[in-house]
Structure formats: structure tokens, C-alpha cells
From TrEMBL:
Residues 11-24 have a biased composition (Basic and acidic residues). It comes from candidate division MSBL1 archaeon SCGC-AAA385D11. This is CobQ/CobB/MinD/ParA nucleotide binding domain-containing protein. Residues 1-10 have a biased composition (Acidic residues). Residues 1-24 are annotated as: Disordered. Residues 84-304 form the CobQ/CobB/MinD/ParA nucleotide binding domain.
């Protein structure tokens, strides 16, 4: 595309992680400045800007995400527990049960429930009321740029507006403009470090319901996770997802302290044995099996909250055991 006689614009993305909050903000400001400049040039020449801006933002995002993630959580006290697996294995339900169980631990720990699946099912399983998604927040910026400081302020305000009984809520949602939605990921990561995982207002735990499949691993949006619980139903596809998550995690060098596997709703001993063997092969801790629970099944069908389950629920009793096991293990 001809750009006339304007001074050439150069944008260099170095493959190194910014070492401080100030350095990250400097990099973000450079990116923002160049994006604004491209927009101005295109508008001056009567070009349509929707597709070019989306393309540029995606290239910037991919360039930043190529930076190594080793040490991503160094110095952070918040424990981030992610739930992954193929679609339909019950990861959202188990994430909600874990949130309830952690909240009942001694000391009433502070918890942020984060739904990074664009389908936004976790709030319903928790019985959340009157909440706003991150996608709702950024929708106003669709087709425009994202002012960095304003985003950070609105992000902090969103957490306050989404306070629930016993936990705070952060559903990602999805903006209709996929380019805008992708651009948010880098700002969200830095906001997490500086607003959620650090300082006197940091949460004790963040419980994250990840997207189904392995894309969140390959894109490194799970880089802040300290403990990853992979849910499987024991099917061949479910087992392949466990293997793929582990192998892709190694390939992109995501620094996760503890990997776990949980079999959900399966009582066939041969299937459970196969999952145990796979866990041993991949050097993943096998937590155990959550038994089929009719009360949990009914909740899923009628849209109830996991907080409605009785204390002696088969599934919830087992989840409480898993929580005690996991929380007794140290982070690196």
C-alpha cells in the first residue's frame, strides 16, 4: 500500500520480556503511538481502517507473545489455579466447586473467579448476579485504540463492580470485534500483574476457567497460572487433549509449577487406570476421580449454583479433598 512521502515508520519488537512495570508501560506506549500514527496516515488518504488496524494489532500481539515466559510469576504471592480440558468434560463445574471449597478454607481467603472462556458459563455455575464482562468494558473502544492508563483504571473499577458474596468475578466475554478482543490480552496480562497479583490488594487465589482445548496454552494466555488442573472424561479425545496440553506447554515453555489430572464422572476402573498411566507417562500428578453426582447434574440442567449443593455431595466432598492436597503443595 503506497504511503506517500511521509517519514518511514519503524516498529521493532524485541524478543525479551520487559523487566519492570515502567519498562512494560514504555513498550506499550511505543506500540500505542505507532498504531495511532498508522491510523492517522490511513485516514488522511481516505483508506478504510478496520481491516488494517486489526492486522497490525494482531502482528504486534504475536510479536509480544513470542517473548519468553520463564519467571513470569516470579515474586508474586497470589496462587493462580487454572482449569483446562476439552469441551464438555465439566471443567467449568469443577472450577466452580473449587472456588466454593477454597472459600471455606480457614482464614476466608480472597478469591478472584476468572472466566477466560468466551462462552461465559462460570458466573452461572456460581450464581453470580449483576456483573459486567471485560468484553462489555472494551466494546466502547471497538474500531479505535485502547488508552493504556484508562484501560487500567477501568479494569480496577470493573473488579469493584463485580464483587460477589465470598469472591470477586472477572468474566472475559467476547467483543464482537475480534481484533479489539485480541489486543486486550497484553493489557490484561500487565493489569493482572500490577493490579491483581501484586501489592496489598492482591488476591490470595485466582481460579481461572480456561478456554476449551489447547489454544490458551499455545497463545501463552495461561502464563500466569501456577497450578493447572486438566479435566478429562477418559475418552480418547479427552486423553489426547491431556497429552496435547502437556506437550504444547513444554514446547512454548510456560512456567507452570504443578500439573494435575482429574477424571470427571467416570467409574469404569479400566478407564481410570488408563488415565493414571497417561499421567505417569507425562509426569503429571493424578489427583483422582470426581464421582458422578446426580445433584450436580441437576444443577447443570436447571441453571443452579454450586453453593446450593449439600456439604455431603459426592462430587463436592471429593473436590474438598483435592483442594487440601493441592494447597498443601508449595509453589516454586
Amino acid at each position: 500500500m503506497p504511503m506517500g512521502e511521509e517519514e518511514p515508520m519503524e516498529l521493532e519488537i524485541k524478543k525479551e520480556s520487559p523487566s519492570s512495570k515502567e519498562e512494560r508501560e514504555r513498550v506499550e506506549e511505543i506500540v500505542e503511538k505507532n498504531l495511532n500514527r498508522v491510523i492517522e496516515i490511513l485516514r488522511a488518504k481516505d483508506y478504510g481502517i478496520i481491516e488494517p488496524v486489526k492486522s497490525i494489532r494482531q502482528e504486534v500481539k504475536e510479536g509480544l507473545e513470542e517473548a519468553p515466559e520463564v519467571g513470569e510469576r516470579r515474586g508474586l504471592e497470589t496462587r493462580v489455579i487454572g482449569f483446562a480440558g476439552k469441551g464438555g468434560v465439566g471443567k467449568t463445574t469443577l472450577a466452580a466447586l473449587f472456588i466454593r471449597a477454597i472459600g471455606e478454607e480457614e482464614g476466608s481467603p480472597s478469591i478472584l473467579a476468572m472466566d477466560s472462556d468466551p462462552n461465559t458459563c462460570l458466573p452461572e455455575m456460581l450464581g453470580s448476579q449483576d456483573y459486567e464482562t471485560l468484553g462489555d468494558m472494551v466494546e466502547k473502544y471497538r474500531g479505535a485504540t485502547l488508552p493504556i492508563q484508562k484501560f487500567r483504571q477501568e479494569f480496577a473499577s470493573l473488579l469493584l463492580r463485580n464483587e460477589q458474596e465470598g469472591y470477586d468475578l472477572l468474566p472475559m466475554g467476547r467483543s464482537e470485534d475480534q481484533g479489539c478482543y485480541c489486543m486486550v490480552n497484553n493489557l490484561l496480562r500487565s493489569s493482572f500483574r500490577d493490579e491483581v497479583l501484586k501489592g496489598s490488594y492482591a488476591y490470595d487465589y485466582v481460579v481461572m476457567d480456561c478456554e476449551a482445548g489447547i489454544e490458551h496454552i499455545s497463545r501463552k494466555t495461561s502464563a500466569i497460572v501456577s497450578d493447572l488442573v486438566i479435566i478429562t472424561d477418559g475418552s480418547q479425545l479427552g486423553m489426547n487433549t491431556v497429552r496435547n496440553i502437556r506437550e504444547v506447554g513444554r514446547k512454548v515453555k510456560i512456567d507452570i509449577d504443578n500439573f494435575y489430572v482429574v477424571v470427571n464422572g467416570v467409574e469404569d476402573e479400566e478407564i481410570i487406570k488408563d488415565v493414571k498411566n497417561l499421567s505417569d507417562e507425562l509426569k503429571i500428578t493424578f489427583l483422582g476421580t470426581v464421582p458422578y453426582d446426580d445433584a450436580v447434574k441437576k444443577l447443570s440442567f436447571r441453571g443452579g449454583s454450586v453453593f446450593e449443593l449439600s456439604e455431603d455431595s459426592r462430587a463436592y466432598s471429593k473436590v474438598k479433598e483435592f483442594v487440601r492436597t493441592m494447597l498443601s503443595r508449595d509453589q516454586k
